[in-house]
Amino acid sequence: MMIGSLLVTVLLAGSPLKLNGDNISRIVNELTTEEKAALLVGSGAKAFDGVGYTTLYVKGAAGTTHPIDRLGIPAIVLADGPAGVRIDDRPCTKFPIGTSLSSTWNPSLVEEVGKAIGNEVLEYGVDVLLAPGVNIQRNPLCGRNFEYYSEDPLLAGKIAAGYIRGIQSQGVGTSIKHFAANNQELNRLYLDARVSPRALRELYLRNFEIAIKESDPWTVMTSYNYINGTLAAENHDLATGVLREDWGYKGLVMTDWAAGVYADKIVASGNDLIQPGSDAHYNRLVQAMNEGSIPMAAIDTAVTRLLRLIVKCPRFKGYEYSDKPALEHNASVARKAAEEGIVLLRNNAGALPLAPDSKIALFGVTSYDFITGGTGAGNVNGSYVIDLRQGLSDAGFALDKTTDEFYADCMRYERFNTKRINSKFDQWFVDAERPAEALPSKDILTRAAKEADKAIITIGRVFGEGKDRLHQFSYLLSAAEMRLIKAVSEAFHAEGKRLIVVLDVGGIVDMTAWQDMADAIVVSWLPGCEAGHAVASVLSGRETPSGRLPMSVPVSYYDDPTACSMPQILTDKPVNYSFYRPAPAGIKKRYDLENIDYVNYREGIYSGYRYYVTEKVRTAYPFGFGLSYTDFRYSGMTVEEDGEDFVVRLDVENTGGHSGKEVIQIYVKAPGRDMDKPSRELKGFTKTGTLAPGQSETVRIRIPRSLLASYDEERCGWATEKGTYSFIAAKNAETPVLARKIRIKDASFTPTGNYLRAEPLFIER
Ligand code: BGC
Question: What is the pTM for the complete model shown?
Answer without folding.
Answer: 0.95
